[in-house]
UniProtKB/TrEMBL annotation:
Gene Ontology process terms (BP): cellular response to amino acid starvation; negative regulation of autophagy; positive regulation of TORC1 signaling; response to amino acid
Name of protein: Ras-related GTP-binding protein C
Catalysis: reaction(s): GTP + H2O = GDP + phosphate + H(+)
Chief place where the protein resides: cytoplasm
GO CC, alphabetical: cytosol; Gtr1-Gtr2 GTPase complex; lysosomal membrane; nucleoplasm
Example GO molecular function: molecular adaptor activity
Subcellular location(s) per record: Cytoplasm; Lysosome membrane; Nucleus
Family that this chain belongs to: Belongs to the GTR/RAG GTP-binding protein family.
Length: 331
């Protein structure tokens, strides 16, 4: 079975100096904490294994390390920590002086690469909400240059680092995590193809396949992603889940806020439609389309059902006794 099912979960490590923002990222992305609440988080001083695999499609664990961990300490089991890890996210506080962070990044990457050369290295240049656009670009260029120079100096220029500008105060942190997670999904090309086929046959402008809990999109069609569309879709998920939690839960039945009947349609005054449908227990499709295209909702719904079946086959989720399609009930 593939890494998305069962025991072999791709693991993401979240590392970085103390106060760089690791716990905040984890709380905001995976536990719906609002960014302002992170001001009062206790600083991390132990390894936290946060297993979110019970609530999320994206089955991975976040290991939050204290900033001052010593790789040469014999109790630090780097084989175990880096060995089965898919991606290492290193967080750098861009509002602070980052010499120390760059040193630690270099030390971490070198060590991790020795243990596991297939690990992907992702650098989050974080807290960029405080920086002007020019300064953001300049900081990214500088960090990129110096980190790669350090690797070249150690004869390790085969190591590839990816860089992302992030902040918990906007959607950039979700977008960055989406890209990190997508690289760990072996079925991604298939998912993208299925989304392309869906949108081109349904006059849909943009479609995202979302992990509902984290609002990470695990795939989208080939058209470029603009932040505004992504934010709109994230907001829609929040609305649907909130309304569902407030009005849709019955204590006696134990119904969940998101289930196979989940579906929602939002019409904006500018003639845009947002359309959400449940795909699996954890995944939702969110589409953006023109109101005129929605005249043919029958076609869209039919295409959606074909799409859902294909996705379920990709992940081998379809149970054998599931014969009939469930048509939607509006949330
Ligand atoms: P950790 O020690 O790496 O886990 O860092 P914390 O998550 O405790 O964050 C340290 C501080 O940075 C907290 O006061 C957060 O509110 C703040 N912080 C985290 N992310 C951001 C961000 O994107 N922008 C800004 N301006 N502050 C942030």
């Amino acid at each position: 079975s593939g890494p998305l099912s069962g025991e072999q979960k791709p693991r993401i490590l979240l590392m970085g100096l103390r106060r760089s923002g690791k716990s905040s990222i984890q709380k905001v992305v995976f536990h719906k904490m609002s960014p302002n609440e992170t001001l009062f988080l206790e600083s991390t001083n132990k390894i936290i294994k946060d297993d979110i695999s019970n609530s999320s499609f994206v089955q991975f664990q976040i290991w939050d390390f204290p900033g001052q961990i010593d790789f040469f300490d014999p109790t630090f089991d780097s084989d175990m920590i880096f060995g089965g890890c898919g991606a290492l996210v290193f967080v750098i506080d861009a509002q602070d002086e980052y010499n120390d962070a760059l040193n630690r990044l270099h030390q971490t990457v070198t060590k991790a690469y020795k243990v596991n050369p297939s690990i992907r290295f992702e650098v989050f240049i974080h807290k960029v909400d405080g920086l002007s656009d020019d300064y953001k670009m300049e900081t990214q260029r500088d960090i990129h240059q110096r980190a790669n120079d350090d690797l070249a100096d150690s004869g390790l220029d085969q190591i590839h680092l990816s860089f992302h500008l992030t902040s918990i105060y906007d959607h950039s942190i979700f977008e960055a995590f989406s890209k990190v997670v997508q690289k760990l999904i072996p079925q991604l090309p298939t998912l993208e193809n299925l989304l392309n086929i869906l949108i081109s046959n349904s006059a849909i402008e943009k479609a995202f396949l979302f992990d509902v809990v984290s609002k990470i999109y695990i795939a989208t069609d080939f058209s470029p992603v603009d932040m505004q569309s992504y934010e709109l879709c994230c907001d829609m998920i929040d609305v649907v889940i909130d309304v569902s939690c407030i009005y849709g839960l019955h204590e006696d039945t134990g119904a969940a806020a998101f289930d196979s009947q989940s579906s929602s349609l939002i019409k904006l005054t500018n003639g845009t439609i947002l359309y959400l449908r449940e795909v699996t227990k954890f995944l939702a499709l969110v589409c953006i389309l023109r109101e005129a295209s929605f005249d043919r909702q029958g076609v869209i719904d039919y295409n959606f059902l074909c799409f859902r079946e294909a996705i379920q086959q990709v992940f081998e989720l379809r149970s054998k006794n599931q014969v009939a399609y469930n048509s939607s009930s509006q949330a």
